[in-house]
Amino acid sequence: MTATDPVLRFESVRKAFGEQVVLDDVSLEVPEHSVTVLIGASGSGKSTLLRCANLLEEIDDGAIWLDGEDVTDPRVDADAVRRRIGVVFQAYNLFPHLNVLDNITLGPRRVHGVRRAEAERRATELLDRLGLAAKAREYPDRLSGGQQQRVALVRAIVSEPRVLLLDEITAALDPELVTEVLSVVRDLKEQGRTMVLATHEMAFARDVADQVCFLADGVILERGTSAQVFGDPQHERTRRFLSRLSDAGRL
Amino acid sequence: MSGAEVSADPVMGRAPYQPSERRLAREAYRRSRTRRSALIAAASTLAVATVLFIVVTGSPGWPVTQKTFLSPHYARAALSPVLHGFVLNLELLAVCGPTILVLGLVIAAARTLRGPVFLPVRLLATAYVDFFRGFPLIILLLLIVFGVPALQLQGVTNDPIILGGTALVINYSAYVAEVYRAGIESVHPSQRAAARSLGLTYTQTMRFVVLPQAIRRVVPALVNDMASLQKDTGLVYIGGAIDAVAAAHIMVAGSFNYTPLVVAGLGFVILTIPMTRYADWLTRRMDRRRAQGGIV
């Protein structure tokens, strides 16, 4: 593996639910220390692509490579693959029966074999950086949506994954809270983390993306830098999608 | 990355999908794994069965044991009276089962009532559950089957089947109420908040939002209690009613051959299995309609 090899690579990925083809021949490379943003209407396949990468869905054809290893090979240990990937879901998916600290340290302690004291020190450090140190002993249901989502981000990064998958993580938040979550994502980019995110926050996408992919009907219709896709879209459907958004005042 | 890439149009100018070599190889690999697991399962089952067979039939007392517990002659003779007895077991189950499920739900709902007005109801329901869950069923049966007739009340039945069924209902509804309560409490408070925010009353919230989710979650536990009830219907024999167990017992007393009891026991198993499978199928169907899917 050389330094230029992508961390995550999708190769002609196909996924169908019954008759409905959700991903059709999708190829995409995610270089290290880069942010890839997936945009597109609801149902265009953004979430499915992320779920496939984390092996929450089995792909029908093609392959997904993580650090040069075909993780979609049936011989691969899916748990070992997921250990190297961090995921944040739209609905946070924190465990309601565990407090914030236990939510964050569950993975390190049970999966990575980190000692409790060490895991909690690391978790507290990250929480502190996000201004959540005071909430360490609180239970998720007592936090605001933005706080919960920031905890979920800490939970995803605490084990230093190779790549972070963020699936519309601000879709359930009000604008004020969106800002606090997105500023965390921006910090993660500053730290050089490799990320793939599906989002409807176009201003943020434009700002943070090294690579933008426009998906429609399970196909990557257009791909390029932020300036290319947002500034000079080549495809008719991309133009229509973006102009609809700017009409709605979201761009 | 240089220049935006524009993929081929998805509708026009694209060859119809053909499974790739990779996909075919993966599917072949998965098929071979499935075959291998099936072979291993078959081989290990056969091995265990063989060992069990050799150990059991090779034991020194096997010939006598076989004659006493597994005699084809007595099994055939027991079939008719035992089946006849089963009618009573099934009748008791058919009447007591639904009664228990409804009564248990009422008690559980009473325990969750809020507000000072309902304090006595809540206390009564709690006391009922506390008492009858702890009170041994067999003593309750004896008290009701023999104690109630001893009171010589006008218009109250002396029928041991009805009295025995009543004892079962009293005992089991206390258990089932707790199962329902566990289900009710497992529904996230946000559901209640959402329902009340729509303007639903407390009762409507329970009826349309909380209970449908709660009951769905406790179906396996309820089936468990129903299977247990089905076996306990046999206890009415202490009042003199002839059910499958009693019928078998009568034959055993006459012949000192225990085969009829084995036949009755197997009958209970055969009754329980379809009940469990039906409940499994029902809950799976409900899950399929709601779940997101995925393979973990």
Short overview:
By secondary structure, chain A is α/β, with parallel strands linked by helices.
Task: Give an overview of the whole structure.
The complex is a heterodimer of chains A (251) and B (296). Chain A is of the alpha/beta class and 251 residues long. Chain A has helices at residues 46-53, 78-82, 100-110, 116-129, 145-157, 175-190, 202-208, 226-231, 236-247; strands at residues 8-17, 20-30, 35-39, 61-66, 69-70, 85-88, 163-167, 195-198, 211-216, 219-224. In chain A, the strands form 2 sheets. Chain A has a 6-stranded mixed β-sheet, sandwiched between helices. In chain A, strands 2-1-4-5 form a 4-stranded antiparallel β-sheet, covered by helices on one side. In chain A, α3 (100-110) crosses α4 and α5 (145-157) runs parallel beside α6 (175-190). With 296 residues, chain B is mainly α. Chain B has a domain at 91-242: MetI-like fold, CATH 1.10.3720.10. In chain B, α7 packs across α8 and α8 runs antiparallel to α10. Chain B starts with a strand and ends in a 6-residue tail after the last helix.
Instruction: Pick out the low-confidence regions of chain A.
Output: none
What is the CATH class name of the domain at 91-242 in chain B? Answer: Mainly Alpha
Spell out the helices and strands of chain A N to C. Answer: EEEHEEHEHHHEHEHEEHH
Radius of gyration of chain A (CA) equals 18 Å
CATH topology heading of the domain at 91-242 in chain B: MetI-like fold
In CATH, the homologous superfamily of the domain at 8-96 and 162-247 in chain A goes by the name: P-loop containing nucleotide triphosphate hydrolases
Annotated CATH homologous superfamily of the domain at 91-242 in chain B: MetI-like
The level-1 CATH class of the domain at 8-96 and 162-247 in chain A: Alpha Beta
Distance between the termini of chain B: 35 Å
- Report the major sheet of chain A: 6 strands, mixed
Globular, elongated, flat, extended or rod-shaped: what is the shape of chain A?
Answer: globular
Q: What is the residue-mean pLDDT of chain B, rounded to a whole number?
A: 88
What is the typical, i.e. mean, pLDDT of chain A?
92
Find the count of extended strands of chain B (DSSP E, 2+ residues): 1
Distance between the terminal alpha carbons of chain A, to the nearest Å?
39 Å
Instruction: Enumerate how many helices of chain A there are, as a single number.
Output: 9
Task: Tell me, briefly, the overall form of chain B.
Answer: flat
Regarding quaternary structure, how should these chains be classified? Answer: heterodimer
Radius of gyration of chain B: 28 Å
How does CATH name the architecture of the domain at 91-242 in chain B? Orthogonal Bundle
| Helix content bin of chain B | over 70%
